[in-house]
Amino acid sequence: MPVLRPLTARLVLAGVLVTACNNTPTPIPTPAPVQIRLATDAATLPLMRALTDGYSAAYPNVSFALEWGNAPAAYEAMRLGRAQLTAVSVMPSTLVQGGPNARQPWFTDLSLDSLVVIANPQNKLSNLSTFELREIYAGSRSRWSDIDPALSGDIDLGSREANDPTRNLFETMVMNKLAASPNAIVLPSIEVMLNFVALQPGAIGYVPASRASKEPRVKMISIDNALPNRATLSNSSYHLPIPVYLMANNEPDGEARKFVAWMLGPNGQQIATKQGYISLN
After folding, report:
1. How far apart are CA 180 and CA 75, in angstroms?
2. What are 107-136's pLDDT values in tens digits?
3. How many of the other CB atoms lie within 10 Å of CB of 48?
4. Is 53 helix (H, G, I), strand (E, B) or coil?
5. Predicted TM-score of the model (pTM)
6. 251 touches 106 (CB < 8 A)
């Protein structure tokens, strides 16, 4: 934020900076404290914590009140005015109540994540085709030797709860309306999914890539010989993208607008990259 000084305090004469009246340093006004209210879904929470910490470090007068839950709850916090901004990892149009005639919120892309399949590091598997992955989760292949004769042991399926965004994406892009096996263990959070796969040698699951990249106890499995990166997501050879969106009831103004611009600029995108996301820049 630019430093403001009284216009009468200094004069520039012939290119020389002169302090008026005396040599007493001109007081620098302290920026007024500002709080920005945010809501976010659970998948995006670590990213928003990193971004808000980075912004407060650069602008100490700005603090944040952060509310989090599932995506509908984050949207509702924004709609009711408890949050000035919300960050979600689902399409904003899926959250708007009242159908196509409802008032549409302001939104913009923040960053890009993706869904990845994870396995225990003891598992020597490195790649699955979409067809094989679908058959695993449908229950048609229940042992690892059904995928590769060199592998052994039962396949322990980890899944997310109904209506979770990652499960919705997985079922849309992988299962193709095929029902998932009733033997899948329903896990209530990303953290529980990571722990499940880390502790079970025969386990398989799915989480956002940003979270898997920071968990050395699991490994990512290529899908159709591709892992998510800028190139594979751009040419759709990796087909499980998770865009992250910023939303507001109206186009942000004031300090909230400055924060949005900062997040979308080099400083914010660098933080997103460090958190395992793919930068928009």
Report:
1. 28
2. 999 999 999 999 999 999 999 999 999 999
3. 24
4. helix
5. 0.83
6. yes
